[in-house]
Fold each of these.
Amino acid sequence: MTLQTENNHLVIMAGGVGSRFWPMSTPELPKQFVDVLGCGKTLIQMTMERFAEVVPADNVWVVTNACYAAIVREQLPQMPADHILLEPCRRNTAPCIAYVSWRIKALDPKANIVVSPSDHIVMDVAEFRRVVSSSLQFASETDAIVTLGMKATRPETGYGYIQTDLSTPCARNREMYRVDSFREKPDLVTAQKYVAQNNFFWNAGIFVWNVGTIVNALRIYQPQLSEIFEQLLPYYGTEREQELIDERFPQCENISIDYAVLEKADEIFCFPASFGWSDLGTWGSLYDNKPRDAQGNVLIGNVECHDSHNCVVHCTQEKRVIIQGLEGYIVAEHDDALLICRLSEEQQIRKFTEGK
Amino acid sequence: MTLQTENNHLVIMAGGVGSRFWPMSTPELPKQFVDVLGCGKTLIQMTMERFAEVVPADNVWVVTNACYAAIVREQLPQMPADHILLEPCRRNTAPCIAYVSWRIKALDPKANIVVSPSDHIVMDVAEFRRVVSSSLQFASETDAIVTLGMKATRPETGYGYIQTDLSTPCARNREMYRVDSFREKPDLVTAQKYVAQNNFFWNAGIFVWNVGTIVNALRIYQPQLSEIFEQLLPYYGTEREQELIDERFPQCENISIDYAVLEKADEIFCFPASFGWSDLGTWGSLYDNKPRDAQGNVLIGNVECHDSHNCVVHCTQEKRVIIQGLEGYIVAEHDDALLICRLSEEQQIRKFTEGK
């Protein structure tokens, strides 16, 4: 079957600063722009690649902070440069999605959109493509908002959860289920309860909808926010767009799309999926998601280990690194910074780097 | 008393490669050329400074490998550039001392010479100057070979020892004692025996003699070696000097001055001294010789420690370093290399870097 893809659009949200991954990730070059896995590609490059055959390169959009424009142009030369939308300040996901939705609508009112973070990893790309294609097809035929739900394999307290009604699959796509509720990051006891049930899924922040659906939902649930981007309709794609965005965007409320729309709307579906997903939010998740050597080490860079176990080492290729006698540490070296920290204490990293 | 210093000469031996201090010390920039203590001066700069008021800058000589000529000129601009003698290859201390001795003799037959390593540290510089001045005075009046003996405060197996006859001080300088024998680096049991007696001192490799004494001793005990430098007498200070040294120096036997002369000669005196000396040969000795913070850490560079104790960290100022949860480690970062190693395992460092 040849899929119709010309109305499929990909929105990559790339405004994060990745502070928990310091010093590999810095405000100057956040982790989505870094070769975190040491595979020769940055996370945002792997993200775009993952959607090949599902979304044409001409329909790829990146929303990021103005200061990363040049980096995106350099790392994703295949996508149109004028599809890089620049936020003058950080305002969470709802303003970001509102901006790009109106921008796409002005160009392609029939657009079906998949929204994706820029810094996640996926092991089974073929299955990922199947799930996203199926969701885009579903979104093109309905007014549904689709979220991908990741099978919760452990009581993770760092993710939001989607409570799903598994009793009745959707008639039109029997892999889709109605969402009962979104749950914020739970405490450990609650997370354990969620995992014990089988109808809770991790919210991966991957959303699928057609452009009319998301624009209408924003109009209903976020009229003020919508007004801002509605008013800019005559200017999208013109020379004045950036100037007006720079003026209006800071007025947007700092609010996530989850709060702004998903928790309020009715027609929300979850597509439970398993394609080896990680948000790669922490050094521990990198450790969990890369093959380890016989000593349990994840080594990225020119690293030589002696008497060391269960470490994750991330250094640039230019550096010769010799490690001796370390058990369970993060060692990360990047340009002008070096971090050595117990993996078990990695929640302190953010604290170390605050206010610097 | 104003001391006569115009015939005092200082020879700094700076040909070492400091492999036990990797990666702070590299073959490209060995530790004598590095600001090891983080005080803004390199070890060779501190060495030259230590002899101020005892030896005029115009009488300072450095013998080093040809590849370090530019570094010495840059780091010691006060000394005459043509006093930097360049060995085309490494041949231990006897050829080095023979070369510089004939070279000085050609210029100043009345020279009194103190020979010093370039990479040691001294805490009490005033006492050091007193001891060296006194030794130079003694050497100017006698045909004695003087070695400085460091009070052995622990059974160190990394140093050679000087066995001294403490029964009768020298009549001319009552701080000087005859040397009975030189002992090579002992095993631990032997070292403990030495320390238990009070007539064994560490051989710091600091020698004092007048130029006639050392030249004569070399002629007697190392006639072949002496012949090489004797033949070059017409060329010292001329354009042909380097060319002839490059040709002849490789023919010299690889032998230390201790073996070549000191163990054979009669008129050897030891000046037992205490001025807070360390050869700074290992990370452990740096740890022992720098003030520690309340957590027992020696931190050189822009280093921030959390829950860490008894570490020695040496990084460049440009690097922001954050350490968490380390106990008793060396962390050393330098240009293109990073080492993390237990202090207790530092003897492995040489092995790590062999053949690279």
Amino acid sequence: MLTEKQLQNFAELAVRVGANMQKGQEVVIRCDVNCQDFAHLIAQKAYEFGAKKVHMEWRDEKLDRINMLNATKDAICDIPKYQTELWNYFIDRKCCLISISAEDPNKYKGCDANKLSAYQIAFQTARQLFRNATMSNYLRWTIVSVPTPEWAKQVFPNDPVNVAVDKMWDAIARIMRLDTPDPTAAWRKHIETLVSRAKFLTEHNFEYIHMKNKTGTDLKVGLAEGHVWIAAEEDGQDGVPFTANMPTEEVFTAPHNRKIDGTVVNALPLVNNGNVIDDFSITFKDGKVVDYKAKIGYDALKGLLESDEGVLSLGEIALIGKNSPIAQSGILFYNTLFDENASCHLAFGASYPTTVKGGNDMTDEQLAARGMNQSIQHVDFMVGTKDIDIDGIGYDGKVVPIFRDGDWII
Amino acid sequence: MLTEKQLQNFAELAVRVGANMQKGQEVVIRCDVNCQDFAHLIAQKAYEFGAKKVHMEWRDEKLDRINMLNATKDAICDIPKYQTELWNYFIDRKCCLISISAEDPNKYKGCDANKLSAYQIAFQTARQLFRNATMSNYLRWTIVSVPTPEWAKQVFPNDPVNVAVDKMWDAIARIMRLDTPDPTAAWRKHIETLVSRAKFLTEHNFEYIHMKNKTGTDLKVGLAEGHVWIAAEEDGQDGVPFTANMPTEEVFTAPHNRKIDGTVVNALPLVNNGNVIDDFSITFKDGKVVDYKAKIGYDALKGLLESDEGVLSLGEIALIGKNSPIAQSGILFYNTLFDENASCHLAFGASYPTTVKGGNDMTDEQLAARGMNQSIQHVDFMVGTKDIDIDGIGYDGKVVPIFRDGDWII
């Protein structure tokens, strides 16, 4: 368990380094009802730093599961108008958004994959405007995590639940640098390191990234024309910087959705909407998935890959060294926020307009011409094994080694 | 603490006897995030009895307090459109509504009374359409309660919090008849008794109710023309009966808002929006408040009585014997749902259109002509002392004794 001071520091990180809330701004805290205590801490902290008003977007994973198990597909897929009105309000008011991510990885275990996938499509379609507002940095946003009993039990299944929750808090404290005297300063320094790596990669303007390991991955990922590598800190459209993921260890950019070839094997399980997908491989040709296999969660993977056309290509490639604090913790969190920062990853679905120069001012057609991918989905999956080698290949064919044996060499 | 079976019975009471949810209906559960466990039980139970879909209207009293203490009056009074859209949706879909009432009586303790009262006006104004939909029985609705630590601590201040919560559960189990083998059957019988008393009073068609005791109350409350006494069960506009309050012990009707004269002294504290008002008296002339005093919470009473014109008259008169199970428990709950069922009470503000014959089909003008009161408020306060005598006075001047020494004699 954290000390009161550490909890306060954590809430401050979310408000100031994460969403970088500005004085007089309205704030949305999006979290499950089971994380209400930390939400209240963040609300209090937001007011200390001058928030105008704090709104809640409550989630309730236990009710979601009850609904998914009991309501009909039609009822589930009927996304209520009050939900979109909530999001529209947040856009209208230019709120900044602080999400607390603490999903039970087994939230939807045993639910009908077909109903679940139909719901996902309906939900993501209804959420499109709002997702655009965050993905294009029109709104500043951040995600942080706190333990819940259900989640901690999945991560530490052999411990009693209170021990599991304590272990989870300890891990989060280290990963979030809450064990340092000045976590905000520690984060500023960390962000600087990541940003310098992103700058190096952007300046090289590689045509391809080539990933290869001994467990079956051999994939050439073309990069979008005019791509920019981004790390840790981005600018909102209002010019105010923010850190969308806390923790973050990744340096990422946009693939070219017509230039991806080869096969990639997952390195960690993919948890999508409460379903675990594992031991899977994906084969691409000319930017599109042409084959896939999964020993665990095949139906869930199938449901995901059938949700629209764009989900069959990639929207993100992200590089993370095996010596990142999260990778070093050796913990599998079953939560993207952490696991994506333990391992290089790719994402099925939409790319971030911010990962090409001037992307926010481009039309969909202009983005597509650059190789930027569009989809209602954006789902990360981990591919960075401890032995992975990664090279950059220039437009002139020149090869620049980036990773050897799973870690940065630049 | 209740057994699992008792909790299940409790949830069933809310769904079947309370809101009387019909197969295929959408359900709204309105509750604080701190009551999520019971909300999930109700959701599950609703599906067992054929709900189409379960929605949540989350409240968060801790955040409400943080907002009230920190946001400006303008920010607080700016009721977001997503809030009214939520209520409009519930009306459009003809949802039935199950509220879990478990407010911390000190929720707003120490907050600025002026800001609080401005907020109440803004909130109730925004909520008018929805309130009309429930008060006119267009939507079927019910209120039930479960203990929370903050509330239990207020009710049993000398006990450790876990003991206080246990005592509260025990009290609720008895009051809700969950200690009987078949609570649903026990409720049906109880409802029958109350309904027969209401019938007796309606048939007498009294012009006035006269309340008198030894602690200063001497009040003649005229009754609306064509009034109907209601108890326990009412019909929704769709003809389906429901029980709006669980527990309920009251038999109530509408005062005539131009025929109230005399003085009434409160018998129990009034908790309004997290403020305790006590030791107060109200004097009426020709149906309107012309004077009021309060030793505790004067500002809160003043704020309430200044919220609109209609709040200065009465919208409800309700009779409850001193031998009701709630009165017998001897517990002051600081919660209207219970305390109003321990004691005869009156309500400042709006009357229920259902308490005159054909009221739901009348215009506001027609209702007003009958003496029905209109206001954005409806706030109960308890006046039934153990020594109260109550008479009915007919249009012919005939006096019929109804209560002697605080209990029914009919």
Amino acid sequence: MNKVYVVGVGPGGAEFMTVQARAALEQADVLCGYTTYIELVRGLYPDKETCATPMRQELERCRQALETARSGKAVALVCSGDAGIYGMAGPLLELAPEFPEVEVEIVPGVTAALSGAALLGAPLGHDFCVVSLSDLLTPWEVIEKRLECAALGDFSLCIYNPASNKRADYLQRACDILLRYKSPETACGWVRNIGREGQERKILTLARLREERADMFTTVFVGSSTTRETGGRVVTPRGYRL
Amino acid sequence: MNKVYVVGVGPGGAEFMTVQARAALEQADVLCGYTTYIELVRGLYPDKETCATPMRQELERCRQALETARSGKAVALVCSGDAGIYGMAGPLLELAPEFPEVEVEIVPGVTAALSGAALLGAPLGHDFCVVSLSDLLTPWEVIEKRLECAALGDFSLCIYNPASNKRADYLQRACDILLRYKSPETACGWVRNIGREGQERKILTLARLREERADMFTTVFVGSSTTRETGGRVVTPRGYRL
């Protein structure tokens, strides 16, 4: 079968996968993906052929998956979280027209905005934005503009890739932009290692979020003006009259 | 067990549920929720007690779930899509402090932004916003401001509740706002009845989206300036150099 499934497997353990994702992995002859994500699923299918590629080789990974499928195999390209949200579905679909004999199916999964929000409460209970602070592929000016627009629109905000070794102060820079428009008392939170060993969460104000150190396994949530802490959770009300 | 699980069951059929969601439904003594969603899961657990409430009785539904849990039962409050995104996690957590003996666990699920995007390709492959056009609980001016900010930030946009019988022209009004800032050629799409009988999808420009008739089972996607149609799919590139 000349087919690539691009599969979102959720945040970590097998319990976060959908039945559809499990079925796609089951049907695949070969499991492809970033090394860390292949480790997550290899245990479920110890006998399957795997093909792991290191970070930053996203296009090579997609091309390899399509070439393997063209040779007559069913390939699952494994993504953490969702297949599409900052995932491999985009670049794979951009390359796919070069491989007209290969069928592509996108299998969605629980992205960190959802799994992280569930750990904190319901910070994304009303309109929200998702912004990545990674400037590897996006000019910082574009990121800054989006943070401003998220604040001006009074959206709840979920921040992916808030920091890395080379970008240690990016979360602080983002908070400084948001603090031009939002109260320092805005309810915020972060989660780290969602659904994996070492899972942590913290609820705090925007002023205190600015002082936190995030890493690449952290997802950050910044509330709208209506977001509140209640009973140890962060909630953005939809507007029901209690 | 005095516990409420707020469970996101994904868009429709059982194959979109996570293993964690299935386990929560399994452990529940009582399944609560909006009538339509209870129908979706009742078939899986024909012997469980159910408690269905009609639309618009969200707070009553949450209070009933908490009261049932306080009486010593494990309750699953079933939400379509995710538990938190316009779901019951928010109002339930707002009421929960009145029920200190009840434990609450939020179980995330695949929301329509993800399941709908997968059917279209990867329209949310970069930073994005999610906005509901329902003005039942949100003033229209706030919705309009958020649409403007989403356009000014050049986000991809996913629109929930684009129309209902009483709000037949809301999608058109939203498109008119977006067209002040965005090209009429912007790549867009919609999906209807995701994961259910009668599933449909359509890819079209923003100018043509303005002429479409949506209903409450439709989810709409509006691209950023970089979103493209390729090979019959909508893709918002992350920025990899092909």
